[in-house]
Amino acid sequence: MEEYPIGKQVRLPSSNSLLTMLADERPASLPQPVEVMTAMIEVAPGDPGTPPHRHSGPVFGYLIEGEFIFELEGEPERIIKAGEAFWEPGGDVIHYQSANNLQDSWSRFLVIMMCVPGQPMLTLVDEEELASRRDRRAPRPA
To answer: How far apart are CA 109 and CA 72, in angstroms?
Structure first.
């Protein structure tokens, strides 16, 4: 497979089309069988987003507009801005937050989710499980 550097625009062979690689991930596994869903998520100004949750398979996303706070289990929270891609491995990993970081504008992102057919594409994590796994969460910003 041909490799394209992240963030660098290249012309596709024998074409006037341009490609900019936004992300290149190799998930450890995909659910088998797999159901692929594409969705637009819109988060109101200042909204904390969906409470801690997980997905049955990997999720790939692209922020179209705005910026949001993104935090996965074991990783520090980070700000994702319009034009940036993100992903999460799914499975057992908790997605702690995807809050709108803007108080005066909506944030909108596109996600492609690879889910286990017949299972919810999103499952909320209860307080008891969050407490039992608190050692897996990255230190909080001061």
So the answer is: 17
Number of domains observed in the structure of the chain: 1
- The residue range of the domain holding 74 is 28-125
Which residue's structure tokens are 């179209």? 64
Cα-to-chain-centroid distance, residue 56: 13
CATH label of the domain that carries residue 117? 2.60.120.10
The pLDDT tens digits for 85-128 are 999 999 999 999 999 999 999 999 999 999 989 989 899 999 99
pTM of the model: 0.85
User: DSSP characters for 4-43?
Assistant: --BT-EEEPTTSS-EEEB------S---SS-EEEEEEEEE
